[in-house]
């Protein structure tokens, strides 16, 4: 019934050379995050070698214990038996100590690697442009940041330690199998190619299905995130069944994929179990015949069985680790897709120094289109020069391009044609951080973060003193209502500022912009959420704030911009009128029509109720 953009698409694993090459590339890329922790890795590997080596000694000593017990029936000399038991206890204790050290060191390294990966991913996401976030669901992105990175963490922290340990056990176990009995070893190892072939064949399918599970969960999370963030809209339209059905559809898709993965893992586990224990049964049968023939002692047979069991368990463990690595490759592929995303707002190789900003803003033949629409460009052939300190009001009907024009100044988007300059320098030649540090924005849709009032205002200038915060709040006429809260400036505003009224949120956002003290100020209907009394107070504060600053104002009431230095009237993405209020009123045309219609509405709110808001 409804459609929403899906998660970022990507190709599934490709069997063959290209898939293997990509797998190796992803593993190498993951490994690169471990370089800062190489000492931990090397010490952990050393502990793994010692622990696994000591565990390989156990079956041989156990065989000696069996022979010392059963081949010397009637003997009273228990010294060999005592020595063997003491050696076993000592080996167990040493293996446990080195095993614990190995587990801690490799787990610590894995946790550090994943923390770095998560920080790198989040930091990279913050560098991407608004165009990227407009095209992708927030829930899908957060799923990659949490669930997918968590999948990688399980492998890097736990499976990596097991991989080293089991590899040492496998190699050492195979060597000791041949030392104990070459003929039994050949019989035992004949099953290993079957195990490896099964693991590779089913493992590839597990990886593809694991990717489907991750994609389906990400899509469901994205739907849930949208529904939760817009819960008031959902409830006001009694659309709970629609959202429940949408989320349920995503969960069912993930369940089906997870079920398919579980079936494949079950098949693999069953095949591995049969091959492993079937091989042990054959070894026990053949080894028993050798003991009866006198070619093998009971202790050596027991030792061989232990080694064979170790090798079998190791192969099964490596199969499980292989599955985990397949899942991690799917998850890391989704992570690296984001890390490989490049912003469509590239930083200049050699950014120009901005210096002290005076605030001159120049549009030269500027045109802009979002690129994903089939209609005409949003803005066309804009040419105007705003001098430092001027107050420019942007007026026009809905959809005229006012907000888009304002979005170009801090370079949230790049112009499609022409140049946009700050103090005579193309904004594309400036470092984004330097450019935006000199621009203050109060958007139409106020966003506060789920901290305290003080923390939200401090967002404008981290490190500012409490006095500076209070002064900014006073300038925005927010100090009195903040002080009236029981916790004052320590009041928690809730997610997106939901605990504050619309007018209170707007005034906190204005205080945040005031504290930043920018040279260029962008106000996108900054007073639209206020009642008449609050609007008058905030408008007075804004007028004081805009003195000496270049300001662009989009106002929902034309009466608030009559004192603007300059008014740009937009229609269909073009500037159709340019002048002061008196000049435009005298010239007639679109501005005068908009003003008079708005004036009549303010005088009589019921008049022309069917007309849309003009600006």
From TrEMBL:
Residue span(s) of domain ABC transporter: 361-597
Chief localization: membrane
Record region (Disordered): 1-22
Organism superkingdom: Bacteria
Single Gene Ontology MF annotation: ABC-type oligopeptide transporter activity
Protein location: Cell membrane
UniProt cross-references to PANTHER family, sorted A to Z: ATP-BINDING CASSETTE SUB-FAMILY B MEMBER 10, MITOCHONDRIAL, ATP-DEPENDENT PERMEASE MDL1, MITOCHONDRIAL
Identification of the protein by name: ABC transporter ATP-binding protein
UniProt source species: Deinococcus aquiradiocola
